[in-house]
Structures are given as C-alpha cells and as structure tokens.
Amino acid sequence: MGRYVARRLIQFIPVILGTLFLLHLLSVLTIQIVGDPVRALFGENAPPDAVIQQLQVQYNLDDPCLQTTGNPCVGLFFDRMGQYLQGDFGVNFRGRPVTELFSERIWVTIRLTTLAILFETVIGITMGMLAGLRKDKFFDNFVRFSTSILIAFPTFVFGSLMLLVLGLQFGLYLRESEWAPEWLGQMFQVGYNEEYPWLSLFLPAMVLGAFSLAAVARLTRTSLIENLRSDYVRTARAKGLTTRRTIGIHTLRNSLIPVVTYIGIDIGVLLGGALVTEGIFNVPGIGQLVFISVQSNDTPVIIGVVTILTMVFLVANLIVDILYAALDPRIRYE
Length: 334
Known about the structure:
By secondary structure, this protein is an all-alpha fold. It has helices at 2-34, 37-42, 49-58, 74-85, 98-133, 138-152, 155-176, 182-187, 202-228, 231-238, 243-255, 257-281, 286-295, 299-327. It has 14 helices and no strands. Helix 7 crosses helix 9 (202-228) and helix 7 (155-176) packs across helix 12. The chain is globular, with a radius of gyration of 24 Å. Belongs to the binding-protein-dependent transport system permease family.
C-alpha cells in the first residue's frame, strides 16, 4: 500500500500541473479574445492610461503575450506557479487576497457539501440496497420511478420548488407553531443563519445532493443485482453462511466499489455545483463568491478559486483509489 500511495503521489504532480496549465490557457485565451479585464472593469468611465497600466502591472496583466491571440504565455504560467507555491493566489480588483476571500466562505461550502454527501450516501445506498434485494417488486419500481424524477429535474427548478414548498410554506408553519421546537424550524429555513450553521443548511443540502442521490441509488441497485448472481455468492450460500453475512459482508462491499468511485468524483462536482444552490438559498459560500466574481468580471478570484477547487478534486480522487483496497480484498497494490 505504501509504494502504491507514493507512486500515485508522484503521478499526481504531472496531473495537477497539466490541469493548472489548461486553466491558465483558458484564462489567457479569454483575455486575448474578449479583452483586458481591467479596461472592462471600468467600462465607458475609463480612468487615465497611467492608472490602467498601473493596475495591469499589479495584476500581472502587462505581459506582451496577452496581446497575441493564441499565445500560451508559458512564462506567465511559471510565474503564476511560483506564486501558488508560496500560497499567493492573487488579489481581487478591490485589493483583497483571494485566499482571504476563500477562507471566509469555504467552511460554509464544506458544511453544505458534507451534508449533501451524507444525505446522498446514506439514503442513496439504503434505497439502492433495498431495491436490489427486492428486484421488480413495489419498492424497486418506486425507487426507479423516484430517481428518474430527480434526475429529470434541473437543479434550479428543483431548488426553487423546495424553497417555495418546504422553505416558505412548511418552514413558516413550523416556525410559527407552538409545538415545533426551534431547531426543527431552522432545518427548513429559506436562507443561511449563522446561529444555526448546520441546521440552516439542511434544505440546501437536500437540493444539492438530490441528483447524486438518484445516481447512487441506481448504481447500488444495479451493482448489487449483478453481484447477487456471482459464483462467490452462490458458494457462500452453499457453505451455509447466513443471508445477512453473505449480503452485508461479501456482496455489499463489492457492490460499493462503483458507488465510492462516483462519490469521490462527486465531491468536486458538488463543490462546483453549489453555485446554483447557494444562489437560490442565498448561502454565503464559494459558489456565491464565484457567481459574484463572474458578474463583476473579477478574473483573479475566478482563476484562484477554480485552481484551489481543482486541487481538492484531484486529492479526493487519490483518496478514492486508496479506498478500493479496503472495499475489495481482491484488489492489491503491492
């Protein structure tokens, strides 16, 4: 296991460099094609050229390569990597460091993502397991129908419906009633409440994890049905193992391998997909920060935040690879 982890860490270096170069190339091409973001920031009320040149130097936008469309600006990329290694991800157009803006909001998004992953994992695996054990029966048909509905609904539509029905109507009823405890009303809050940093994120987490819940349930169901027909399951039953041990210890562990793969990839997807959910429920997280930065054309924030999230996504995939050995004893890395 140790040699495999070391090998994966070595492979991690060119992967992250290649990914960051692609992000750099996209940002450079955007500037070359669309135009200087500093000039776009002021619009028609542009200040004197001396002020614009000073801002271009401050934000590393004075490189001549940015004037030639198609130039990859390799030198600018290495300069940016040097800044990243020092923990400097730049400053926004108001002079605040990107790392400061990121640290202020990341914990809200981490709490939201954690709740969404727990929601989709626990409920999704449970639904998929019960559906797989009751193939073609009522509960199996119900799971297939309900997951199809969840997959069909776009996040902004489903989130808006949840906000109106559960947040405004049901949540307001709970908060105004005398019998419901205060914490229950906060679970169906329409916005983020700093006094209840976890409970007020319950409803947004349900919206964020709904699509992934459907995918996890379907993956678990399909994988479990396939493994129940395997030779090792029939052998275990022939040896007299109980149904609980055969399914819980042997079949379910092997069935969770594609689910773990999906959840590992979904961590990055949830961090990025939180943009829509945080916008609907007014959650002050990373998604809202990126949304505001896109609206204000704050390029340094967009590049810095996307770079950090990319590294988080790659680390999550590394952890998933290591978890394979714990789930499937047939997989060995030594």
